[in-house]
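Late entry, evening session. Most of the bench is empty. Finally got around to the prediction I had been postponing all week. Sequence below, unchanged from the version circulated by S.P.
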Amino acid sequence: MGPVATVAFLARVQALTPATCDEDHIRVIADINAQVPNRHTQPRAAAEELGRMAAALGVAGAQVLAMPCNTAHAHADAIRAAGLPFIDMIAATADAAAAAGAKAVGILATPGGEALYRSALAARGLKPVGLDEAGRAAFMAAVFAVKAGDAGAGQRAAMRGLAEQLVAAGADHLIAGCTEVPLLLDAGEAPVPLTDSAEVLAAACVAACR
């Protein structure tokens, strides 16, 4: 639901599409709705609004749905109720980490996103590694800074520090399980291999539509 992260996601879809002219690109119908009720504090209202958005996208012509917000995948059932195929970002990212040979996966995500990834990783025989309470608070502060327009050096250093904490706790792989994370931490800057959920979802969208 973060507009900055969503615009970055759309750029990834475009960049990952093999195209030599405009007509080679896939059609995208985007509802960048920052007015969705807070999915942390108003989960029922958020689910209802996401369901309405999914149905409206179908009416607008969408044939497959994707949501570049990890936390809101807690409401995936409300989106699937619209009757269209839905690309599960959590499952696809956990699959990608497993395929990359991960054993212990550090999760950079909101508390809600972390819970979803813990379940998905455990189901694939991978060990989830999470931040401690102080780390979770620092993570949320960095995410909200991005939403407020600050993706500067200080926030980038903070995110890299959190990644290093996860590695120190035993992670041999990282998941960017919040779409604001790649705005602060590039895969090349991570201390261990990093699977970016936004990149995974963008690639899955291109594959589904081509």
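Two things to note before I forget:
The chain has two domains: 3-88+200-209, 89-196.
The CA atoms of residues 50 and 79 lie 6 Å apart.
Will write this up properly tomorrow.
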